[in-house]
Known about the structure:
The complex is a heterodimer of chains A (about 120) and B (about 110).
Chain A: E1 3-6, E2 10-12, E3 18-25, E4 34-39, E5 46-51, E6 58-60, E7 68-73, E8 78-83, E9 92-99, E10 106-109, E11 113-117
Parallel strand pairs in A: 2-11
Antiparallel strand pairs in A: 1-3, 3-8, 4-5, 4-9, 5-6, 7-8, 9-10, 9-11
Chain B: E1 4-6, E2 19-25, E3 38-43, E4 50-54, E5 58-59, E6 67-72, E7 75-80, E8 89-95, E9 103-104, E10 108-110
Antiparallel strand pairs in B: 1-2, 2-7, 3-4, 3-8, 4-5, 6-7, 8-9, 8-10
Amino acid sequence: QVQLVQSGAEVKKPGASVKVSCKASGYTFIGYYMHWVRQAPGQGLEWMGRINPNSGGTDYAQKFQGRVTMTRDTSITTAYMELSSLRSDDTAVYYCARDHPDAEGTDYWGQGTLVTVSS
Amino acid sequence: DIVMTQSTLSSPVTLGQPASISCRSSQSLVDSDGNTHLSWLQQRPGQPPRLLIYKISNRFSGVPDRFSGSGAGTDFTLKISRVEAEDVGVYYCMQGTQFPPVSFGQGTKLEIK
């Protein structure tokens, strides 16, 4: 069965960087794009970007261009999302989500990683 | 970018009664192949989102048949035929046709009476 298991909660100071991992299992990792979506406390869903695990190619939302880097390690079927120059309004739960094979969108989601930015 | 706008449910829904949530996009979601990439997600309290419906009306694996999707172009609807207690949560529509970016509606909260 498809599983996406994310790394644990992080607390960071403003200006720092955070790197969240997403370990995939139960399917062919390089066959599906991986999306990253975040959700601020009590708020809705915000798409950050996606990575092609086969080629490493990325598409980022304009809002995060220059601050976000998505990478992958195919040997351990893990995707990463690094966000730099953190601000307090980056406090959110960050999700990875697999691309749907038959539609433009997502199917399986990770459990989420809470990133708290506080001085 | 496409803006997705969802309706709100005016009051809690009675167990066993139907519920309907609307979603409207600022532009047509039909792509050049004639496909419409509109999905519905459910987020139960404290849980990650879960895919319910993709391409307007296709139920994802394991989704009960009381959930159904309909619509075309810019107007879409998620219907729950008989609401159950486990359906409490927030429902989001999501478009992937005009990409990037993927965009989400603001969410619609379903409460049970």
